[in-house]
Structure formats: C-alpha cells, structure tokens
Amino acid sequence: MRKIGLILLTGLLFIISACGNSGGEEVSEQGIEGDEAKKEMTMGFGVGTYEEQFRKGILPILEEQGYTVDIKTFSQNMQVNPAMDEGAIDASVFQSTAYMEGINTELNTNMARLAFAPGAPQGLYSTRHSSLDEVEDGTTVAFPNDPVNQERAARILEELGWITIDEDAGTTDFNVNSIHPGDYDIQVEILDPAQILVSLDDVDYGVVNGNYIANSGRKITEALKIENTPEEHRIIVSINEKDLDSQWAKDLKAAYESPEFEEYINSEGKYDGFILPEAWENN
Questions:
Q1: What gap in Å lies between CA 249 and CA 114, rounded to an integer?
Q2: Distance from the first to the final alpha carbon of the chain
Q3: Bridging pattern class, strands 123-125 and 111-116
Q4: Are residues 154 and 220 in the same domain?
Q5: CB–CB of 181/157 below 8 Å?
Q6: Which of 88, 158, 252, 281 has the least CB density, counted as fewest CB within 10 Å?
Q7: Which residues span the domain enclosing 114?
Q8: What's the CA dihedral at 44, 76, 187, 125 to 10 degrees?
Q9: CATH number for the domain including 138?
C-alpha cells in the first residue's frame, strides 16, 4: 500500500508541475506574439500636409509589410495629444519636440520622439505687402495662438529687428507680453494657426506654419522671411514612451527614414523648402 501511495503521489506532483510549466510557456509565447502580431495602428494628424505625406509616402510601405492603418485627422491640433493619451491613436505627426515636451508637463503624459518627419519652417507672408521694407509703427502681424509657435514667430521678427524679446521669455510657456518694440511698434494679432493664411487680407503680415502653405498649393519659398528652424521645433513622429521598443514602432520609424519615402518627398514640388530628416543622408 505504501508503494502504491508513493507512485500516486509522484504522478500527481508530475501532473501539477507539467501544468504549471505549460501555462508559463503559453503566457510567454502570447507575450511575444502580442508584440509581433500587432499589425494594426491608428495614426493621428492635425490639419495640414503631414497626413498627405503619410497617406501617399508611408502607408504603401506599411501595407506591404502587412499593416492595416486607420488615419484620423483632427480639426484642431490641441485634440491630438489627449487622443494619444487615451489610447485612441498610436502615433501622431503634427508637433515639434518642444511642443510635445510642453504637453507632457501640462497633461502629465509620457510621449516620446520616434523620428523626424519632413517639416515645413514657419515663414512671414503677406498679401498686402510685397516687401518687408513696408513695415512701420502700427504694422499688424498675425501670430499662432499656442505658446511654442508664438515663440517661433517672435524669433522671426526679432531677427528682423522689428521687436525685442525678454531674455527669460521661455518656449513652452512663452507669452506675447514678453515682446517689446524694437525698430517698430508692432501690433500682434493672435489667431488659430490654421486661420492665419486665410486671414492675411486682414493683417499686414502673418507668421504661417509652413505645412499650411504647402497644403494650399503655394510654396515655402514665397515667404518674405523664413525662420532658421532649431531642432526642438522640427516636426516629429511622436508615440507613447512605452511603445518605443515595439516592433510596429520600429517599422514606422524605418518607413519615415526609408529611401522610398525620401524619393516620394523629393518628387513633389510642394515640399521644396521643407526640412528633411538627417537619416536620409545615409540613404
């Protein structure tokens, strides 16, 4: 009886052990497959040309790799990052590193830069004037209504000598109260970035984000003054930090840095004057 009991106990322990090992292996395999098997992603865009870049230049690359992509375009840029934080989109292309970091602080989000996208510099445009020499006291200039793009706009006018800016003006917390008269007493009008281009008849000059120019059929090179865009203000592909090591994110980054995408951008005249990713220098 003792011998039979020992055999039964040994067999029971073997079954329990085997079940435990089988379950552990299954979870591990599912974890690996969960990353590799993600072949669906949702991309978010603000108003402008970056959605078109993706649809015509990036989407074919991803589809060839078996991805299914849902594209969401938001009517206002401020809607994009909350959507990512809520999990409604996986990645976005519309903002700069400086803007993203400001939102991370403001909303306690954890977004990260995945790659640089071909981005358009800001420029100073006018339909009422053909030259910057027509500036005078009281000249009106339209600025974007978010702090980061306001700071960029102000730097253009500062470089021209039209205004001065407080040394501690900041970037993500920039305020137009930091602006003071330089060579001229400029009147700043604050508008939604997407509205400045269509409102140029109502102001003397307007600082327009270049993607709106390209999307309107005009050229970046038509600007009376183009900014010298620092790296922190260049357009990026942004994702949640937790996704940086995922395979889909690596494939998305590779697509934006690929020779195929470079060839598409260079073949489109509307992107003349855009700031191109350094990664293409190695293609």
A1: 8
A2: 77
A3: unpaired
A4: yes
A5: no
A6: 281
A7: 39-119+234-282
A8: 50
A9: 3.40.190.10
Q: Clarify whether residues 263 and 221 are in a common domain.
A: no
Residues 168, 266 within the same domain: no
Looking at the structure, do residues 111 and 133 belong to the same domain, yes or no? no
pTM for the model stands at 0.77
d(Cα 123, Cα 192) in Å, to the nearest integer? 15
Does residue 23 lie in a domain region? Answer: no
Q: Are 95 and 236 in contact (CB under 8 A)?
A: yes
C-alpha torsion sign, points 209, 213, 214, 216: positive
* C-alpha–C-alpha distance, residues 231 and 97, integer Å: 8
Q: Can you read off the two tokens belonging to residue 26?
A: 């299954």
pLDDT in tens, 172-217: 889 999 999 999 999 999 999 889 999 999 999 999 998 888 888 8
Beta-carbon contacts of residue 198 (< 8 Å; ≥ 6 apart):
none
